[in-house]
Amino acid sequence: MIDLSNIEKRFGDAVILKDISLGIPEGSVTALIGPSGGGKSTLLRCINLLEIPTAGSVRIGDEKIDFEPGMKIGWKSIQKIRRQTGMVFQNFQLFPHRTAIENVMEGLTTVLRWPREKAHNRATELLTKVGMAHKTEAWPSELSGGQQQRVAIARALAPSPKVLLCDEPTSALDPELSAEVIDVLGRLAAEGTTMVMATHDLRLASRIANHVVFLESGKVVESGRAEAIFGDPRQERTKSFISSINAAQTAHI
User: How far is the C-alpha of 32 from the C-alpha of 18, rounded, in Å?
Assistant: First the structure.
């Protein structure tokens, strides 16, 4: 489904990602975890080319792009990859001058050129799926953070992407509002939605991820089945990180 091969990302002389290779099967949920600055959000953004890798290759389905230092990638090639993904951002990024349903419809009508009635029906279906059918005409300023994120999830799902990418989907929310978003993502996972998420929220990762990748300093320290990583990690660094985060999140509650 998704193959990342020998991905490297540099900003000037700083190496952010170093020789990362991952395979993400269709229908799986992969959590990228690790300390701040470890590269998890950058790696996530390399999948849909919000960040262009310096070297390596990205394949989603039948579309593949190879990268080399200094090589310029054409916009059409980027769009072929990007249109197969949906993105959920940390801070929601809803249009403040659009209602909830208009936010979900926006990409369908402006990018995909769907008729408004078809887009409206699709948006209504998805807002119902994420528990927001009662807020279709609400403005983002009238919604809680959890509600805004659920609208953002509906928007990301609207064009039926092959993979849903989530960049810290609960980090801007308090624990109660996080639970709303975790419930929605859990239902999507149960339905077989392919997801990759960068997260510091180990409750989210342990609940819905099949596979976990622990990143630090731009490298994969350890990866494997979620139950193995959270229950019996092989690397001491993984073990200490998970213990410290679990303790901090328990104390926060």
Answer: 15
